Amino acid sequence: QVHLVESGGGLVQPGGSLRLSCAASGSIFSINAMGWYRQAPGKQRELVAAITDGSTTNYLDSVKGRFTISRDNAKNTVYLQMNSLKPEDSGVYYCRSWDGSGGSWGQGTQVTVSS
């Protein structure tokens, strides 16, 4: 199985930037894709961005042009660069990996965008 550990969350003012990191360990060669979800209080968890083994990316419409997902295969790490942050971007961000048996979740990292 895959173990995922997120880092990089925190408090930032509107218009600011954060870079989230997710380090994978375990059965990393079983991973087909990785991505980031977020969940705000009282809201459903939503897929923010994903990247495949072929480096194809997908983004939630509301973050297109502001967020960038990338991978460093040598470090088994996926990143989410978040720019021009808005209060509605606030929530717990969860790293996710997918494989043939389903997938794994990280424990989440809090992102708060507030003035």
Structure keywords:
7-stranded mixed sheet; globular; 0% helix; 57% strand; mainly beta; 115 residues; 4-stranded antiparallel sheet; 11 strands
Written account of the structure:
- There is one protein chain.
- By secondary structure, the chain is mostly beta strands.
- 0% of the residues lie in helices and 57% in strands.
- The protein contains no helices and 11 strands.
- It has strands at 2-7, 10-12, 18-26, 33-39, 46-52, 57-59, 67-72, 77-82, 91-99, 102-105, 109-113.
- Strands 2, 4, 5, 6, 9, 10 and 11 form a 7-stranded mixed sheet that branches. A 4-stranded antiparallel sheet has the order 1-3-8-7, with no helix packed on it.
- The mean pLDDT is 96.
Quantity of strands, as a count? 11
SS-based structural class? mainly beta
- Number of contiguous helices: 0
Largest sheet: 7 strands, mixed
Shape: globular
Hey, roughly how much beta strand do the residues contain?
over 45%
Radius of gyration: 13 Å
Helix and strand element order: EEEEEEEEEEE
Mean pLDDT, to the nearest integer, reads: 96
Tell me the helix content: under 10%
Residue runs with pLDDT of under 50 for 5 or more positions: none
End-to-end C-alpha gap: 40 Å
